[in-house]
Specification:
By secondary structure, the chain is mostly helical. Strands 1-2-3 form a 3-stranded antiparallel beta sheet, with no helix packed on it. A two-stranded antiparallel sheet has the order 4-5. The mean pLDDT is 85.
C-alpha cells in the first residue's frame, strides 16, 4: 500500500509525491485540478490514466449499453462525438494516408482515376488487375511512342473521359508520362497531328514502324 500524504505534505523540493505510485515527480507530470490546495491532481498523469482505464474496463459492457441507449435517443450526440474525434486526430490521419500513398502508389492512382471518372459522370469500370494485364500485353512499352517503361507506366484513356470515353479496359492503354501529359484531354487524332514536341516524336515513331512493316 502506498503511503498516504496530505496534499501539502506531498510537495517536496524535488517535486510532488504521487498519491498512487508514491514517486516524486515534477509538477509538469500532474494535471490541473482547481479544487485542490496545490491546484494539481493528487496522482500523476500516468497513474491517473491507468486508473481511468481500469475503471473503464470494470464497467466496459455497462458503458457500451448506456452509450447505445443514448445514441438511439439522440443521434446528434454520435455525430458530434464523431466530428470531435475526426478533428482531434485529423493530422494523424493525414500522416497515415500520406504514408500509405507512398507505400502503395498504384492504389492512390486508382483512387484518383475513379474520382476523375465520377467527376466526368462516367461509371468507374476498371481495376488494378486490368491495368497489370494491359501492361503485360504491351510488354512494358509505351502505347504511343514505344519507349521502355521500366514498370513506371501511367494509365491513359484513348478517348478522354471529358470527351465521352469510357473507363472500361477497352478504352485504356498504358503510356509513359511524357505522352500522357502531352496528350492530356485530346483525342488521338487531335494529339498526334498536333504541334507539340512529343506528338512530333510519336509521328516519327509511327513512320518508322510503317517503313519496317513495308520492308518485311
Amino acid at each position: 500500500m502506498p503511503k498516504r500524504h496530505s496534499s501539502l505534505s506531498r510537495v517536496t523540493p524535488e517535486g510532488i509525491r504521487c498519491r498512487l505510485c508514491d514517486a516524486v515527480k515534477p509538477a509538469s507530470d500532474y494535471e490541473a485540478c482547481p479544487g485542490s490546495r496545490t491546484g494539481l491532481r493528487t496522482e500523476c498523469r500516468d497513474c491517473h490514466k491507468a486508473s481511468k482505464l481500469a475503471a473503464y474496463h470494470r464497467r466496459k459492457e455497462e458503458i457500451a449499453v448506456e452509450r447505445k441507449a443514448a445514441y438511439a435517443q439522440n443521434p446528434e450526440i454520435r455525430r458530434r462525438i464523431g466530428l470531435a474525434s475526426y478533428y482531434r486526430h485529423h493530422e494523424k490521419r493525414l500522416v497515415g494516408k500520406r504514408r500509405y500513398r507512398t507505400d502503395h502508389p498504384e492504389t492512390g492512382k486508382a483512387q484518383n482515376r475513379r474520382y476523375r471518372a465520377r467527376l466526368a459522370g462516367v461509371q468507374p469500370g476498371h481495376t488494378l488487375d486490368d491495368l497489370i494485364r494491359i501492361h503485360r500485353r504491351q510488354r512494358d512499352l509505351c502505347f504511343w511512342c514505344g519507349g521502355r517503361l521500366h514498370g513506371l507506366y501511367e494509365p491513359e484513356h484513348v478517348i478522354p473521359l471529358s470527351r465521352g470515353g469510357s473507363d472500361y479496359p477497352e478504352n485504356l492503354v498504358v503510356s509513359c508520362r511524357k505522352c500522357n501529359v502531352s496528350k492530356s484531354g485530346r483525342t488521338p487524332v487531335e494529339w498526334i497531328y498536333g504541334s507539340s514536341s512529343q506528338a512530333v516524336h510519336v509521328r516519327k515513331v509511327i513512320r518508322r514502324f510503317r517503313v519496317r512493316r513495308a520492308l518485311h
